[in-house]
């Protein structure tokens, strides 16, 4: 934007903030420098109208609350004004430690668009008189990253608009098309999910944002649905991928000095003549078997038999697969 | 963020307009501020700031006479707004700004081991209040973690001393002791890390908090050498470089999840359900444990070396269970090497 355009827009904002009456486009043109034109010249007038439309759009994009109305019942032509209380950031009395926290939060975004939004938001707080200590730290800083679907899904959830997207689950061959009334977006253990009412399944579902393929399509009108009152978004995701209780106990024999990874979570280690006996807590015998197989001959399961059998079964199948490979020359 | 694509460079101009509307109340709140300080605060050069001030000087209320224009007084390098023409407050937050600040504050408040959580929560409440219904922001954050462990680490990092740590390295399946000079603590993808200069590796390393098994503060200050550069984590913690070994696996349906958990270089559909997945690994020993752990639905395609190691390890393990390898082969028994100990043991 040229300097003259910026100047014109600043003057437009000041003019509309200062008026209580709605000002028509013609009145604005007669007042604000930069809109001078001959209303009787059709082409000149049209050029003015285009310019004024562009300027209004620019202000709305910035978030300037441009009000439209008529000055009196006798006026047919719409006018414009900006209500100061709608325009102005309310007073935010932040204590120094609170301001420091906001300053730190604003620099956590690794996503360029949200990083820009956070820093322009912070600039407004500063303009409201908040002083932010740029040196402050909280000893521990999260890197805040989001998937591309984050922005459209949070906006849709905020506006209560239905969305459609293609969703890829690794154990399916092709993405499926899903339709959702999004209630909200959740970060759980560093991954992002959207929770809502799945229109095809007619049930509550959550979706991992990293599995959304391509663009999120906003399909519905704003305010099309109401999420259930007091819905706890986290509970839907946490129930779905929560922690597991390790109540089982397996005993394995580990070669001396080997299997460091297992020793770290053994609840008991006893040295013996043929190696160390480790007692390992586990939840799922097959899951544990997978882990133990990784250690090959360094670890041998003594108990329980179901884990021992699962390990042996896995080893047999792995040996067969890789043996066939060698015989057929697949890897050579 | 949701702003439409810039039309012919109008983004920069929109930014300037936003900056100008913000500048007046900023200066109004800080009479007599040094121009250099204001520029630093607002993230612009001094020259840009002076240009902004010049532009504002010719803007004002209709009439545009001397008493209507924005006015300011200069005193050396200092500036004071003497007339604001009605832009006495910053513009309210946009939905994107409110969302960006509120979500980042929620993340911060949820981060295990963060200091002064109470101040973060107070700030969050005030920002939410100011943003009003913009932040019915339907975003919830929960980052469970071992808060006590992380707090202990943070205290040690803040102590400013060199640390001796016992650290488990998954890539080599070994636990080692090393002396590190801590730089900072951070959280990436829901996991806490200590970033430190590692005197053993003579490089900056990220240490996962849940793999630090013991920590001792040494009687010497942490001294981070000048060549130490913190990691760029915008692409995640593990950014495989092209000089690392590339492995290719044939992966069945049940194990396709690995493509979501490990950065893969290539994923292609293979025969039937199978996917051909290529990824870089720091260590072939790790790759061997990884492949064995994944189980029967995964076969090594390349390198041959890794396939051989997997086969040999599985055979040796079966041997330890006294299960003859011949028993698991579909090939005729005479293809078993004559010296196969399982056969020799005669357990069939």
TrEMBL record, chain A:
It comes from the Bacteria. The keyword Glycosyltransferase does not apply. Residues 1-25 form the signal peptide. The keyword Signal applies. Residues 149-213 form the WYL domain. Residues 248-319 form the WCX domain. Pfam families: WCX, WYL. Keywords: Signal. PANTHER family: PROTEIN PAFB, PTHR34580. This is Uncharacterized protein. It comes from Micromonospora lupini str. Lupac 08. The lineage of its organism: Bacteria, Bacillati, Actinomycetota, Actinomycetes, Micromonosporales.
Automatic annotation (TrEMBL), chain B:
This is Protein pafC. Residues 150-216 form the WYL domain. Coiled coil: none annotated. It comes from the Bacteria. It comes from Micromonospora lupini str. Lupac 08. Residues 15-128 form the PafC HTH domain. Residues 248-318 form the WCX domain.
């Amino acid at each position: 934007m040229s300097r003259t355009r910026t100047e014109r827009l600043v003057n437009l904002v000041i003019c509309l903030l200062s008026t209580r009456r709605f000002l028509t486009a013609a009145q604005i043109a007669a007042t604000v420098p930069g809109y001078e034109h001959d209303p009787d010249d059709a082409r000149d007038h049209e050029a003015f109208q285009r310019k004024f439309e562009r300027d209004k759009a620019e202000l709305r994009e910035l978030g300037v609350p441009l009000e439209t109305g008529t000055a009196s019942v006798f006026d047919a032509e719409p006018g414009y004004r900006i209500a100061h209380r709608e325009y102005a950031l309310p007073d935010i009395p932040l204590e120094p430690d609170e301001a420091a926290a906001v300053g730190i939060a604003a620099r956590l975004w690794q996503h360029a668009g949200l990083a820009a939004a956070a820093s322009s938001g912070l600039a407004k707080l500063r303009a409201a008189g908040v002083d932010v200590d740029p040196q402050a730290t909280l000893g521990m800083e999260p890197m805040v990253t989001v998937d591309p679907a984050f922005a459209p899904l949070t906006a849709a959830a905020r506006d209560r608009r239905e969305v459609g997207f293609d969703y890829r689950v690794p154990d399916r061959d092709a993405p499926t098309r899903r339709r959702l009334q999004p209630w909200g977006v959740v970060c759980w253990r560093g991954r992002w999910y959207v929770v809502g009412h799945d229109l095809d399944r007619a049930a509550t579902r959550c979706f991992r944002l990293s599995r959304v393929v391509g663009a999120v399509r906003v399909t519905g009108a704003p305010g099309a649905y109401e999420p259930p009152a007091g819905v706890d978004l986290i509970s839907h995701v946490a129930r779905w991928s929560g922690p597991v209780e390790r109540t089982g106990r397996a005993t394995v024999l580990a070669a001396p000095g080997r299997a460091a990874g297992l020793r770290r979570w053994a609840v008991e280690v006893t040295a013996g003549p043929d190696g160390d006996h480790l007692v390992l807590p586990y939840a799922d015998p097959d899951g544990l078997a997978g882990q133990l197989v990784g250690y090959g001959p360094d670890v041998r399961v003594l108990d329980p038999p179901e884990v021992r059998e699962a390990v042996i079964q896995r080893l047999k199948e792995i040996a067969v697969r890789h043996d066939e490979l060698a015989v057929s020359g697949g890897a050579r | 963020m949701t702003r439409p694509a810039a039309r012919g460079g109008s983004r920069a101009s929109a930014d300037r307009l936003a900056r100008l509307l913000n500048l007046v109340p900023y200066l109004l709140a800080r009479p007599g501020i040094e121009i250099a300080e204001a520029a630093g605060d607002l993230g612009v050069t001094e020259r840009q700031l002076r240009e902004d001030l010049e532009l504002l000087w010719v803007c004002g209320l209709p009439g545009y006479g001397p008493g209507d224009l924005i006015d300011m007084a200069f005193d050396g390098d200092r500036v004071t707004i003497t007339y604001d023409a009605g832009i006495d407050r910053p513009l309210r937050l946009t939905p994107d700004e409110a969302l960006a600040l509120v979500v980042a504050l929620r993340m911060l408040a949820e981060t295990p081991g963060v200091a002064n959580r109470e101040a973060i929560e107070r700030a969050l409440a005030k920002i939410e209040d100011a943003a009003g219904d913009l932040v019915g922001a339907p975003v919830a954050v929960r980052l469970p973690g071992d808060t006590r462990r992380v707090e202990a680490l943070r205290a040690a990092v803040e102590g400013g001393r060199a640390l001796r740590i016992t650290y488990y390295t998954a890539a080599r399946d070994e636990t080692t002791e090393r002396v590190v000079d801590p730089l900072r603590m951070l959280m990436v993808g829901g996991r806490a890390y200590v970033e430190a200069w590692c005197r053993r590796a003579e490089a900056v390393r990220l240490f996962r908090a849940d793999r630090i098994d013991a920590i001792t503060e040494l009687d010497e200050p942490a001294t981070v050498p000048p060549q130490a550069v913190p990691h760029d984590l915008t692409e995640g913690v593990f950014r495989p470089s092209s000089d690392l070994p590339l492995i290719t696996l044939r992966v069945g349906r049940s194990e396709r999840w690995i493509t979501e958990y490990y950065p893969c270089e290539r994923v292609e559909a293979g025969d039937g359900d199978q996917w051909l997945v290529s990824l870089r690994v720091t260590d072939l020993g790790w790759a061997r444990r990884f492949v064995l752990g994944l189980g029967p639905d995964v076969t090594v395609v390349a390198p041959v070396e890794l396939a051989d190691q997997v086969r040999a390890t599985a055979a040796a393990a079966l041997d330890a269970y006294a299960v003859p390898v011949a028993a698991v082969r579909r090939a005729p028994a005479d293809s078993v090497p004559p010296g196969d100990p399982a056969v020799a043991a005669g357990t069939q």
